[in-house]
Design brief:
This protein is of the alpha+beta class. The protein contains 17 helices and 19 strands. The strands form five sheets. Strands 1, 2, 3, 4, 5, 6 and 7 form a seven-stranded mixed sheet that branches. Helix 16 links the parallel strand 17 and strand 18. The chain is elongated.
């Protein structure tokens, strides 16, 4: 695209009316159409509609009309300048899941129109802009090391909504929203603090919550600091309670109180309970989303209950059986439940010898038990042995990995 900058523009009579200083595209299509050309003469700029352009090339641009008949093009909110709004700006490479900088832009002809085909993020785009193609090609020929273009097709590009370009993306339009949370986390890491918050605003709450769970704590706190308390609360509602509590535990008490005030009473109460436990204990690791059942239920009743409640539980591989005072007295695996006859009581198929931990246990103790007995989850009880939460294997995976690493290193 930079090759056409400073290209002479001639009207229908052959008079020089200026030089190309920018190109305007209209968003909305997969490959945005060029809708106007900006020309400059004597420090004054004018926008000419593409409809008034007769011939378009990097050597010369000719118009269908005389210079004194030019009607200025009026940009809309969906129009972007390639130079002022996109060149040298950061964009998001959806295919590569990373933040990149635009060195040049590629235009393509389709029928009578020109469209934005892609963004050149490689060295070739920079060389072309600096008008160094000839000397660079000579050097490459000498050393037999040709450079290759690195162009991202525009359908794999996501603009960063901000002041420049002035783009507002809805959740439906947002390509980032379709990515895996780990990829979104990588993109967030590559953005400035201001842009992170802007991108987070365009994500739906569920995807935003999952992405936050993948980024470093420091970045998470920076993002939350730039979001409204309502947006933060809506994101936390989509997170597992233990993850939400971990984040709240790092925030100033005043901000925590503000956020909790926007949540429903039950959700706020659950988080307050989790925040009471020290971070490095079983209570600080546990989640309050689990399935507990009465031993008097039949298998058929239990399965029906699971259909109604399972979406809110973090894991249903283990079902914990409690007495009337919420003391955990047994555990039923999902496999045992499925193969049992419908009329069988849970008390008949539950295992009464189960591993459990007190809320005050250290995370290292929890990790040791999960690794030793090859568990997917372990129940957490309070001092009176009432079931108050569970810890899943992914909650202690960092501890397990660090222990294995130390053993491998002989530490």
């Amino acid at each position: 695209m930079t090759e056409i900058l400073n290209t002479p523009v001639l009207d229908r009579t052959g008079d020089d009316v200026g030089r190309v200083s920018d190109v305007l595209i209209s968003l909305g299509e997969i490959f945005p159409r060029v809708c106007a050309v900006e020309i400059k003469r004597d420090k004054q700029t004018r926008l000419i509609s593409k409809e008034d352009v007769d011939y378009f090339s990097k050597r010369v641009i000719t118009l269908k009309i005389a210079g004194d008949k030019i009607v200025l093009y009026q940009p809309s909110s969906r129009d972007l300048f390639l130079v002022k709004d996109l060149l040298d700006r950061q964009i998001i490479d959806i295919y590569g899941a990373k933040v990149v900088r635009v060195n040049d832009l590629k235009l393509m002809r389709f029928n009578a129109d020109f469209h934005l085909a892609g963004a050149d993020i490689g060295l070739s785009g920079l060389i072309r802009r600096l008008n160094l193609e000839r000397p660079v090609k000579a050097l490459q020929s000498l050393f037999k090391k040709p450079h290759h273009e690195h162009v991202i097709a525009w359908n794999f590009v996501e603009l960063i909504p901000g002041e420049k370009p002035k783009v507002k993306l809805t959740v439906e339009q947002n390509k980032i929203n379709q990515l895996h949370p780990a990829d979104i986390a990588e993109i967030l890491t590559g953005l400035s603090p201001q842009d992170r918050a802007v991108v987070m605003e365009t994500l739906d709450e569920e995807k935003a919550a999952s992405a936050l769970g993948e980024v470093e704590t420091e970045i998470t706190l920076d993002i939350l600091d730039d979001l409204s308390k309502e947006k933060v609360a809506s994101i936390l509602k989509e997170m597992n309670p233990d993850d939400a509590a971990d984040i709240l535990g790092e925030l100033p008490k005043e901000k925590v109180s503000e956020i909790l005030s926007t949540l429903e009473l039950r959700e706020a109460a659950d988080l307050k309970d989790l925040l009471k436990h020290p971070e490095h204990t079983a209570g600080g690791l546990m989640t309050t989303e689990f399935i507990s059942l009465s031993e008097k239920l039949t298998v058929e009743q239990t399965i029906q209950h699971l259909r109604e409640k399972a979406p809110d539980a973090e894991t249903i591989y283990y079902l914990y059986v409690v007495d009337d005072d919420d003391h955990v007295i047994g555990v039923v695996s999902l496999r045992d439940l499925i193969v049992a006859k419908p009329a069988t009581l849970l008390s008949a198929i539950m295992a009464t010898k189960l591993v459990k931990v007190f809320s005050s246990a250290s995370k290292e103790e929890v990790a040791e038990l999960i690794a030793k007995y090859d568990l997917l989850a372990v129940p957490v009880v309070d001092e009176s042995e009432k079931l108050i939460g569970i810890i899943t294997v992914d909650d202690v995976v960092d501890v397990l990995l660090s222990r294995r690493w130390k053993r491998r290193k002989g530490g």
